[in-house]
Amino acid sequence: MNNLPQDVVIKEVGPRDGLQNEKTLIDLDYKIDMINQLSNSGLSYIEITSFVHPKWIPQLQDAVDVAKKIDRRDDVTYAALVPNMKGLERALEADIDEVSIFMSASESHNQNNINKSIADTYPVLQEVVDEAKASGKSVRGYISTVFGCPYEGDVSVDQVMSVCDRLFSMGIDELSIGDTIGVANPVQVHNVLSTMKERFDENHLALHFHDTRGMALANTLAALQLGFKTFDGSLGGLGGCPYAKGASGNVATDDLVHMLSKMGVNTGVQLDELLKAGQTIESFLDKPLPSKQMELARRM
């Protein structure tokens, strides 16, 4: 495994992608404490909330307050999901560092998640990208259901590439490739990402693996062996997709950091600080987080 990268970047999405799927409304103070602890763990990027309409994601209705009340560090990028211009107005008011836009590779998931066709989503996102850039913000894109859709099953690589092309043409800085329902396997990951590398610079691509079937770390290894260096993770394995029945959380950031550390790959993230943040949110939810590292910490 001499071809593994020496350093990788882990982008924490738990405060957004993780908490949005919790049935319990989490107190603002707990969110702030969690994010502040994550900021002190060595993470360089935290997606802290989403500026979608509160009626769709009530768990994140306090987005502006979260963004304004956390203790920001100069060495951390604080990002948020933004669906449209109304959301962008709130994100700019909150002075988010990076704007994240999102859509699906499959038509039916896009309809269920965004309530628009793929074709109708493009102009909405282009407007957000243009205004975010004009306001001096970097922009990240998410593409969901790359490796499979809960409504359509397999998604063709050609369809995925078409959406990726369009998103990059909008001027985004990075694109996160999502296994939204956790159906990918390492061979599929190798094949899809090998095709992507022929057209796109892997330094502008990130991987967003869900662990529904326990394959996220194996899929991460497949991506690492192709030279990919940026991975999304969710603290303790929090999360899921509100529009994909049965989908569990992202790969747990703490499990990912542990694996990479043991493999000699540097993340710059301190596992013990991650676990403290996990314990903070675990105490409020009054239930165990599903990651292996959190389980081990409870036993010790």
UniProtKB/TrEMBL annotation:
List the SUPFAM superfamilies hit by this protein, alphabetically.
Answer: Aldolase (SSF51569)
The record places domain Pyruvate carboxyltransferase at 8-275
Pfam families on file: HMGL-like
Taxonomic superkingdom? Bacteria
- Could you tell me one molecular function GO term of this UniProt entry? hydroxymethylglutaryl-CoA lyase activity
Keyword Protein biosynthesis applies: no
- Name the enzyme group at the top EC level: lyase
Please give the PROSITE patterns that the UniProt record associates with this protein. PYR_CT
**InterPro entries in the record:** Aldolase_TIM (IPR013785), HMGL (IPR043594), PYR_CT (IPR000891)
Provide the E.C. number(s) assigned to this enzyme: 4.1.3.4
What family classification does the UniProt entry report for this protein? Belongs to the HMG-CoA lyase family.
Q: What is this protein called?
A: Hydroxymethylglutaryl-CoA lyase
Q: Which organism encodes this protein?
A: Alkalibacillus flavidus
